[in-house]
Write a structure and sequence with these properties.
Order of helices and strands: HHHHHHHH
Number of helices: 8
Strand content: under 5%
Radius of gyration: 30 Å
Distance between the termini: 86 Å
Structural class: mainly alpha
Largest sheet: none
Length: 223
């Protein structure tokens, strides 16, 4: 005999949720670590090749002897320096999150290499009219290029030296310290132009910059 179905059984059957089979989710994210390492290695190799060609054109190709600033060989040299700088700084900017590092590095390295390759070396002191622009151009090139090179180094070093998280990942602090390093290199050029580049003068300049940075750190710690 068939037993009658009670109202409770009907309610349970009607309200029981349908069972859904588990499905696998496809996660779209970053590429595997091995692939990222291979890409970084390829970019590093490409940057090294570009810089090697730049140095070869400077030392062997005598690129600086070309008088025309828009000669095809010089235009190729400019583009090669920009490409080498982009391949050098772009992966670092992406890895560390240092926005603007690539553009700063490209500008600084182009200005530095251009000064070395095409600007005659100064023969007089800083205040001599023919040589003053050369000293200023070299100082500006060193300020930009050295600051760009020092920024990732200072940023990574600060993550190991400072204990507070706000200071460890403070990009403004890293930029300030990198700028101070670049300013140190630029001021050395000025001291050389003034004929006062002595060990005592270098030590005093370094002491002044270190004192300024300690004051900055003390103010930020007090805040």
């Amino acid at each position: 005999m068939n037993r009658p179905i009670s109202s409770k059984q009907v309610c349970v059957t009607a309200t029981s949720p349908p069972q859904v089979e588990p499905t696998t989710k496809t996660v779209v994210g970053k590429p595997p670590a091995g692939s990222s390492r291979r890409i970084s290695l390829l970019l590093a190799v490409a940057a090294g090749i570009c810089w090697a060609v730049v140095v070869a054109m400077l030392l062997i190709g005598d690129i600086g002897a070309l008088p025309d600033p828009i000669a095809p060989a010089r235009l190729f040299f400019y583009l090669l320096v920009l490409l080498a700088a982009a391949l050098t700084f772009a992966p670092i900017e992406r890895q560390l999150g240092l926005h603007g590092l690539t553009s700063e590095g490209m500008l600084g390295m182009l200005l530095l290499v251009y000064t070395i390759a095409f600007v005659p070396a100064p023969v007089g002191w800083l205040l001599a009219p023919p040589d003053a622009p050369v000293y200023l151009l070299l100082a500006m090139a060193l300020l930009l290029s050295v600051s760009a090179i020092a920024l990732p180094i200072v940023f990574v070093t600060g993550q190991h030296l400072f204990r507070q998280r706000a200071q460890r990942y403070d990009v403004r602090r890293a930029r300030r310290q990198a700028f101070e390093i670049g300013a140190f290199a630029a001021l050395l050029v000025g001291m050389a132009g003034l004929r006062v580049l002595t060990p005592i003068g270098i030590a005093l300049l370094l002491l002044i910059l270190m004192t300024v940075e300690l004051l900055f750190l003390s103010f930020t710690a007090a805040e």
